[in-house]
Amino acid sequence: MPEATAHPVPRHQIRAAHTAGTVTVYQAYHPRIGVPAARDGRFPPAWKRERMTWVKPSFLWMMYRCGWATKADQETVLAVEITRAGFDRALSGACLSHYVSGVHADREAWARTLRTAPARVQWDPERDLHLNPLPHRSLQLGLSGPMSRAYADEWTVSVRDVTPLAREIHGLLRSGEPEAARALLPLETPYPAGPLEHLGA
Questions:
Q1: Fewer CB atoms inside 10 A, N or C side of the chain?
Q2: Residue 160, beta-bridge partner list
């Protein structure tokens, strides 16, 4: 996954590991949530379904967020494979978490939409192998209410603990072997979400 390409990456683009029917997103949890989730392939009852949960299709952005699985309460990194139907539904019903002129009619219209939207989107700087910010953005998708529950109990196809992978890649970087580390990164390609004008993409 090269950090510089001949064709610049669009500023707002979803990139993810995906198949014909699923897309993989990442989250990091305390082991009391992450370990049983990976063991059972679904989120345990202790996972609070009424709270907003944020999912990230970018492995490296997840590594930036959790510090390669070293931050408190983020020691277990999960790769959650969910249905594309669920992911697409969330995107279609999402609202940007901040006002953007040209995307929203005005601040009041944006605020009204945000209050009732079951999902929200942030575009944060994508990260390179060393977790430095890149010019293009990475999608963060927040799910609340019914969509949070659907994510946990309907859309989830599999849950894998990728903490060992995170630690292996980090170890190679610390040993001065960036190319070996890069070779282990999940393959993330542009996700065919279609036009997302309401999300600035």
A1: N
A2: 79
